[in-house]
Amino acid sequence: MKISVVVPAFNEERLLPGSLSSIRAAAEGFARLGWESELIVCDNNSNDRTAQIAKRARAEVVFEPVNQIGRARNTGAARARGDWIFFVDADSYPSAELFLDAADAIRAGCLAGGSTVRYEDPHPAVALLTGIWNAVSRINKWAAGSFIFCEAAAFRETGGFSEELYASEEIDLFRRLKRLARRDRRTIVILHRHPLRTSDRKLRLYGWREFFWFVVKAVVSRGRTLRSRQHCFTWYDGRR
């Protein structure tokens, strides 16, 4: 078994070192199982030291010139040689326990999965919103984009991440994966024993109200705003 860990990164020089260190440590669990792993960072047209940091961390670095998260993940996945692909955001810190839980799910026959998420010392409003998302994620089998694992063959059969969406591309992917899982009588899992620790950077920079109105606009527009870089500016304006 070989695992490919793909990290999309746009101007992530501040948080990328810690994220890659966590991924390396977590991947040691795969080695204990006798599995191989590789680490791929997709530099999504950064203008900081993202690529240099990734190279120093001994990651394989690929470049995607179009600044879009779905394209960055697909470009990284195109280089992946593993049987399974793990997508981890550059501001997230997976634990060995989370990776081992994912390995257990793989051995049990799942097709794809994700994890609930947590922030360090969140504001009460943020904690409430996070709890709501984690419940929705588990009920609907929608993985947060910050941590996704998927059988490589299934990922490619579904066509990967939509390159028409600038946000919520992970939900779109899991809708297609769920159809494939039903066809093949396999499962989609959202792990929860060891939630992914991730950064609350966007919430601190923009505030939870900005994201509340983002969701409202997406619902009212029936998803049309998700196809607009302008409406999804919090992912693409470069603030870090």
Name the features.
10 helices; alpha/beta; 46% helix; 240 residues; globular; Spore Coat Polysaccharide Biosynthesis Protein SpsA, Chain A; eight-stranded mixed β-sheet
Could you explain how this protein is built, in words?
The chain is an alpha/beta fold. The protein has one domain: Spore Coat Polysaccharide Biosynthesis Protein SpsA, Chain A (Alpha-Beta Complex). Helix content is 46%, strand content 22%. The chain has ten helices and eight strands. An eight-stranded mixed sheet has the order 3-2-1-4-7-6-8-5, with helices on both faces. Strand 1, helix 1 and strand 2 form a beta-alpha-beta unit. Helix 1 crosses helix 4. The N and C termini lie far apart (36 Å). The model has no long low-confidence stretch (mean pLDDT 95).
Layout of strands and helices, then pairs:
Elements: E1 2-9, H1 16-32, E2 36-43, H2 50-56, E3 60-63, H3 69-79, E4 84-88, E5 92-93, H4 96-107, E6 110-118, H5 124-140, E7 147-151, H6 152-158, H7 169-184, E8 187-198, H8 201-206, H9 208-220, H10 233-236
Parallel strand pairs: 1-2, 1-4, 2-3, 6-8
Antiparallel strand pairs: 4-7, 5-8, 6-7
State the CATH class. Answer: Alpha Beta
Number of strands: 8
**Main pleated sheet:** 8 strands, mixed
Number of helices: 10
Summarize the structure.
By secondary structure, the chain is of the alpha/beta class.
